[in-house]
Amino acid sequence: MVIENHIVDVEVPGPGLYEITGDLNERLKALQIESGLMTLFIQHTSASLLIQENADPSAKRDLEVWLNRLVPENDAIYSHVAEGADDMPAHIKAMLTAVNLSIPISKRTLVLGTWQGVFLWEHRRATKKRQIVLNVVGR
């Protein structure tokens, strides 16, 4: 049994869904983990992780538009506004989505469906470097 822990830095230019599936699979190949489980945890309160469609870009666009409509900026109910109009909405968006994922590994690759990819979802406007904790257990 092998247990590996790594920090993955992902720099993003602003809000949106950024696919990280390829990078994760490359790391698995380097670790030579044949089968097991990968867990991911993003160490931030204004970004999230998700598994979503990676074939049609309109799916990403629709998700972003829908979540922005659900959680608008400049809502009068927000009191946490010291860091800008996008700060409190980013916290709410992260709360509504996920900050951790668990994905099976088989044949040195993530076991995802045909149209599935792993995404970092940045909810803030400014360029950010996000850290994702990667834990892999396998053989």
Describe this structure as you would to a colleague.
The protein is elongated, with a radius of gyration of 16 Å. It is an alpha+beta fold and 139 residues long. The chain is built from 3 helices and 8 strands.
What number is the mean pLDDT? 97
Please, how many helices? 3
Major beta sheet, strand line-up: 1-8-3-5-6
Return the string of H and E elements. Answer: EEHEEHHEEEE
Q: What is the gyration radius calculated from CA atoms?
A: 16 Å
Largest sheet: 5 strands, antiparallel
**Terminal Cα span:** 5 Å
Number of strands: 8
CATH architecture name: Sandwich
Note the overall shape.
elongated
The poorly predicted ranges are: none
CATH class: Mainly Beta
Q: How many domains, in number, for the residues?
A: 1
The structure class reads alpha+beta
Task: Show the helix and strand layout.
Elements: E1 2-12, E2 16-19, H1 21-31, E3 35-42, E4 47-53, H2 57-70, H3 87-96, E5 100-106, E6 109-110, E7 116-122, E8 128-138
Antiparallel strand pairs: 1-8, 2-7, 3-5, 3-8, 4-7, 5-6
Give me a quick take on this structure.
The chain has 3 helices and 8 strands. The protein is α+β, with helices and mostly antiparallel strands and 139 residues long.
